Every structure is written in C-alpha cells, then in structure tokens.
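Fold Annotation — chain and its backbone

Encoding — discrete vocabulary of local shapes
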Amino acid sequence: MLHKLNLEHILFLDIETVPEHKDFEDLSEEMKYLWADKTKYQRKEEFSPEAFYDRAGIWAEFGKIVCISVGYFNFRGESRSFRTKSFYGEEKQLLIDFKNIIETHFNTPHHLLCAHNGKEFDFPYIARRMIIHNITLPHKLNLFGKKPWEVPHLDTLDLWKFGDYKHYTSLKLLTNILGIPSPKDDIDGSQVRQVFYEEEDIDRIIIYCEKDTVAVAQILLRLRQEELLQEEEVISV
C-alpha cells in the first residue's frame, strides 16, 4: 500500500512547542491551580507544580507552538528534491500561515499529512491551538465524523508499530536503526524551551525542526525501500 502513495501528495511536518509563558509565576492563580491539577499524576510527589512547569509545552492547554516545519517532494523527470519551509513567530499567525499552505496546495482528498507520532501529538496539538485562537480548522485537521480510513494522516510511528499499539519508538531511535543520518545533532526536544526563552535563538529551533521533518520523510522512504535523500536534494525555501 505504501508503494502506491504518490510522494508528491504528502505534506511532511514537525512542530516545536514550549510552555505558553516563560515562568510558572506568569500564570494566573486559576491557571496555576489548573496546571497543578492537570499534572498531579505525572508529578506524583517528586515535583512541585512550579518545578514541573518546564514541561508545560507538552500540553496544548498550557503550551504553544513556536515553529511548524513542513516538507514536500518534487519530481522533475529523473530529478528529485525535497523542499522544506518553516512557519514561526507569533503563534496565531504561524497557524494561519500553516493553514493556508494546506488549503492552497494540499487540500484534495488524495493529499495526506505525515508526522512521527503525529496522531498522538502534532495533529491534535495544532488543532487544539487553532481552536484556542479561534481559527477555523482546515479540512485535513477536522476529524469530526470521519471514519478511521477517512482520516488523511500518515504517522511513521504508527507504520513502524505494525499493529503493536503498546509499542513506542522515538524518532531518534528509529532513524538510528534504519541507518538514517540523525537529525539530533544539535538540540533535542527537552532543550527547546531553554533555547526559545533563555537564548532567544529561534533560528536554531527552525533548523532543528526542519531536520526532524526531513527525518520523517527519510523514514517513509526506508519503509518503501527507496533511496534516502541526499543532502543536495534537500532545499530550504
């Protein structure tokens, strides 16, 4: 089935998220209480709500998206390229810009969105943040009433599970065992908050996010048993 997919019909993506506010003290008293209540089972007695706040980017209710990187294949005869583009800046605007590329270039029934662990993280996170900002969901993210086989999403983690739904494999591990050049050569997800708030280095986050997007495409190529992308085939636009 994977071999029947047209690679040009797939929009690969990755997101980077951080806590919505820099510090726990920036939250209202009500949000502090709600954060404590939301995370009590994850924290147990090991962390206070304040000490646990650096992980707030994991939850769409307490985090925000600072970068969405997308990538897509382009074929011209025997020539192949993979173009990447990133949306960053004020969250509402980057979500609108991302929505626009979906609705303009990836809006037909045969178009798919693809991410690693996208079904559990990227896709619902984007949808929730759009709703919070009062942005109408694009058709590709509005899953209400859709049957499972009608959902236009590919998930490389899901594909790797082969039906084993209790199994989780990180992007870093999967690229390693499949012989794909690791995208994790600078920072990892746990450092994005520090790079964003302390170092204020959004360019570093963009590079990291785009590398993850390329890695997702590389995994799909390996699952299809096709040649991996070479460095010169990847173009940032």
About this structure: The first helix runs from residue 29 to 43. The first strand starts at residue 10 and ends at 19. The two ends are 30 Å apart (CA to CA). The CA atoms of residues 40 and 49 lie 8 Å apart.
